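Budget justification aside, the reviewers requested a transparent look at the raw inputs and outputs of the sequence design task funded under Objective 1. We therefore reproduce one unedited record. The lines immediately below are the C-alpha cells for a 395-residue chain.
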C-alpha cells in the first residue's frame, strides 16, 4: 500500500509518500517521496511560532510541496481531469477558510492523473489548531477529488513509530519489537511516559504537571538571550562547556547547582516550572552575564533535565517491566539525553531495547505520519468527518 501523508501541526509543511508492506509483526517502508518547507526563518523574529502566520504559510506551500513529493515518487503524470460542479462546490466549501488554496488546488489536480496511492494520512493533532486545519482540509479535498480513504493520525503516535523504525538498505523496518513498549515523549508541548502493551493501545504512566521539557528549554534559552529555536542553542553551549571540562559527565562550576524537581518523588510524573524559575533566580544573582556564564548555566540546566528524565524513565521501566524503550519527539535529538540514556540502559537495564529516532525523524515530519497511518489503515481505521484538535490525547 502506498500512503500519502501530510503534516502541518506547527511550522513545517511536509508531505511524504511511502510504499508500505507487512503487518504489525514485521513491516518494511520505502520512502518514495518526501518534500518539506520549513518556516523557522520566518518565525525567528517572533521568538516562537506565530499561529496565524504558520497557517498562511501552510496554505501557500501545500500545493507545491504535494507536486514535489509526487514528482520525487514518480507518481506525477499530466492528464486532464474533469471535476464535476458538485465536487468543485464541496471542495470550495472545504477550503473556504484558506485564502488562495482552492484556486491553486483546482489548477493542480485538474492537470494531473490520479496517483496510485492507497490512502491519505494527515495529522489531526496535537499541535497548533489553525495550522492543523489547513492540512486536514487539504487532505479532505484530496480524498474527495481522488476518491481515497483518509486516516486521522495522532502526532505523538507518529513520534513513537518514528523511533521504532530502523534504517536498513535505504528502507525503514519495524520488526522484532518486544512488548511492552515504554515511550518517553519529549517535545515543546509534551513530556509523557506512555506504555504500549499491545499495538496501538496506550496507558499513561507519567506526565508533566506544568511545563513540557521542550517548553522549559525554550524559556531558559530566552532568559539567556539565545536565538530561536532555543533547545539546540542550549545544547550547543552545554556541549562546549563539557568539552572544556574534559568530561561528558555532570560537571558544575562555582555557581549554585540547579534542583532536580520531583526526582525522588514516588511517581513517574515530571515538573519543570520550578527548574525554570531556579534558572531565573540564578541569573538575577549575576549582574553581567558573560558567554562563559551562559555555557555554565546551559550545562547545569541540561544536566538537571536529563537527570530527571532518566530517573523517571528508569522508575517506569522497573514498574512496567517494559522490554522496549522508545524516546520520541523533538527533544529526543538532544545529544546529551541520547548519550545518557544509551549509557544508562546498557548499565542498568541491559535487557531493554532502546530506540531513538535518527535526527531527521525526531523533528516534525510526514514520514512518521505515514508510518502511524499505515498501522491504522491495515486495521481499516479510516475517518471521514474529523476535526483539528490542538490537545488531541494519545490515550
Amino acid at each position: 500500500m502506498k500512503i500519502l501523508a501530510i503534516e502541518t501541526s506547527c511550522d513545517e509543511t511536509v508531505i511524504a509518500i511511502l510504499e508500505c508492506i507487512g503487518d504489525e509483526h514485521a513491516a518494511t517502508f520505502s520512502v518514495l517521496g518526501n518534500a518539506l518547507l520549513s518556516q523557522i526563518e520566518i518565525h525567528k523574529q517572533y521568538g516562537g511560532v506565530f499561529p496565524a502566520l504558520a497557517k498562511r504559510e501552510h496554505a501557500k506551500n501545500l500545493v507545491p510541496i504535494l507536486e514535489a513529493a509526487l514528482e520525487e515518487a514518480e507518481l506525477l503524470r499530466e492528464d486532464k481531469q474533469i471535476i464535476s460542479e458538485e465536487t468543485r462546490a464541496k471542495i470550495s466549501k472545504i477550503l473556504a477558510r484558506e485564502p488562495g488554496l482552492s484556486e491553486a488546488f483546482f489548477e493542480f489536480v485538474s492537470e494531473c492523473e490520479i496517483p496510485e496511492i492507497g490512502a491519505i494520512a494527515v495529522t489531526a493533532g496535537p499541535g497548533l489548531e489553525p495550522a492543523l486545519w489547513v492540512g486536514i482540509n487539504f487532505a479532505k479535498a484530496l480524498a474527495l477529488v481522488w476518491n481515497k480513504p483518509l486516516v486521522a493520525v495522532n502526532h505523538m503516535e507518529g513520534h513513537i513509530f518514528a523511533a521504532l523504525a530502523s534504517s536498513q538498505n535505504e528502507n525503514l523496518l519495524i520488526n522484532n519489537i518486544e512488548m511492552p513498549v515504554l515511550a518517553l515523549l519529549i517535545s515543546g508541548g509534551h513530556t509523557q511516559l506512555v506504555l504500549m502493551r499491545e499495538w496501538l493501545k496506550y496507558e499513561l504512566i507519567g506526565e508533566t504537571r506544568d511545563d513540557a521539557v521542550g517548553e522549559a528549554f525554550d524559556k531558559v534559552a530566552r532568559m539567556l538571550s539565545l536565538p530561536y529555536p532555543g533547545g539546540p542553542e542550549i545544547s550547543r553551549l552545554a556541549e562546549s562547556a563539557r568539552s572544556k571540562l574534559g568530561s561528558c559527565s555532570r560537571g558544575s562550576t562555582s555557581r549554585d547547582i540547579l534542583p532536580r524537581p520531583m526526582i525522588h518523588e514516588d511517581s513517574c510524573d515530571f515538573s519543570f516550572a520550578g527548574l525554570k524559575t531556579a534558572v531565573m533566580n540564578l541569573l538575577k544573582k549575576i549582574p553581567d552575564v558573560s558567554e562563559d556564564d551562559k555555557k555554565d548555566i546551559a550545562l547545569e540546566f541540561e544536566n538537571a533535565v536529563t537527570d530527571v528524565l532518566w530517573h523517571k524513565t528508569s522508575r517506569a521501566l522497573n514498574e512496567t517491566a517494559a522490554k522496549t524503550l522508545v524516546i520520541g519527539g523533538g527533544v529526543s535529538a538532544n545529544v546529551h539525553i541520547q548519550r545518557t540514556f544509551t549509557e544508562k540502559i546498557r548499565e542498568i537495564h541491559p535487557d531493554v531495547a532502546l530506540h531513538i529516532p535518527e535526527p531527521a525523524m525526531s523533528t516534525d515530519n510526514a514520514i512518521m505520519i505515514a508510518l502511524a497511518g499505515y498501522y491504522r489503515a491495515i486495521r481499516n481505521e479510516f475517518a471521514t468527518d474529523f476535526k483539528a484538535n490542538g490537545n488531541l490525547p494519545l490515550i
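The chain has two domains: 2-160+362-377, 178-356. The domain at 178-356 is CATH 3.30.420.40 (Nucleotidyltransferase; domain 5). Computational costs for records of this kind are itemized in the attached budget.
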